[in-house]
Amino acid sequence: MNFCLNTQLSTRYNFTVASAGKSIAMANSVRIAAAQMTSVNNLAVNFATCSRLVKEAASAGAKLLCFPENFSFVGDLQGESLKIAETLDGPIMKGYCSLARESNIWLSLGGFQEKGSDDAHLRNTHVLIDDNGNIRSTYSKMHLFDVDVPGGAVYKESSFTEAGKDIVVVDSPFGRLGLTVCYDLRFPEVYQQLRFNHDAQVLLVPAAFTTVTGQAHWEILLRARAIETQCYVIAAAQAGKHNEKRESYGDTLIIDPWGTIVGQLSDRWSTGITVADIDFSLIDSVRTKMPVSKHRKPAEFWNQHP
């Protein structure tokens, strides 16, 4: 098996919270895993890879496995993603719900091609499935990647994707989860909202970073988000060459609230999982010893001191 084990802003976003309808008791620590893979333009091949990684994670004792953005499909040609886009009750997502139920594990599925409001657009949707195979919550990517990458390609995600508007946190056995996707990572106000306005403890950042931007910014941005929010950050990444035109940086990471990397694959391009324990006492300790939530200035302060 290929895994490694390592023990107040302006409220201009809408907010959604999902819970089980009852309190979720949490142990002092719980084991989670993050996957790294190279998705292609074949739904069945990607599902087979995900199934294998789920079995590895379950065997390692993980109760949650996080997959990267575009886990189920990466197109070769323009328009392919739109053609395969489905609703959340379609056969693609039903297959992943069954996978979670059969393996008795929660799945974070980052960046599913969900049908949009018209035939010309989809939603880049982060789907959280519980161990009974039920969709617990969804988050649609808020910040779309319309970028001319220096030394790289030109991307315009908004040409086929509609942006989400809601911030999402979910109560779970792994703490209070804040859901994001890839390019959101560059916008710290989202993570500030998740932590300081909505009490997130664990931030999920599924991604498919380009090699150019990944090499320059991936780790430092993730560690910064962990340090400034005092949250665990779980960043599952696409890795390697998907086709002749597209390549992802990889380097799946799990980072603790002090900014320490506690989970990482030895090869940033390999397919596999990394496993770590979410330690709730560490979250409490870091926040108690450095109480930034009490020291930060409220939104009213900045409105009065432009």
Outline of the structure:
The chain has 306 residues and is α/β, with parallel strands linked by helices. Helices cover 27% and strands 31% of the residues.
CATH architecture: 4-Layer Sandwich
Structure class: alpha/beta
* Strands, count: 18
Radius of gyration over C-alpha positions, nearest whole angstrom: 18 Å
Helix content percent band: 25-40%
Can you tell me the CATH topology?
Nitrilase/N-carbamoyl-D-aminoacid amidohydrolase
InterPro entries: C-N_Hydrolase, C-N_Hydrolase_sf, Nit1/2_C-N_Hydrolase
Protein name: Deaminated glutathione amidase, chloroplastic/cytosolic
Pfam family, one: CN_hydrolase
Domain CN hydrolase: 30-280
Can you describe this structure?
By secondary structure, the chain is of the alpha/beta class. It has one domain: Nitrilase/N-carbamoyl-D-aminoacid amidohydrolase (4-Layer Sandwich). The chain is 27% helix and 31% strand. It is built from eight helices and 18 strands. Strands 1, 3, 4, 5, 6, 7, 14, 15 and 18 form a nine-stranded mixed β-sheet that branches. A seven-stranded mixed β-sheet has the order 2-10-11-12-13-16-17, with helices on one face. It has a two-stranded antiparallel sheet with strand order 8-9. The radius of gyration is 18 Å and the shape is globular. GO terms for molecular function: hydrolase activity, acting on carbon-nitrogen (but not peptide) bonds, in linear amides. InterPro entries: C-N_Hydrolase, C-N_Hydrolase_sf, Nit1/2_C-N_Hydrolase. Pfam families: CN_hydrolase. This is Deaminated glutathione amidase, chloroplastic/cytosolic.
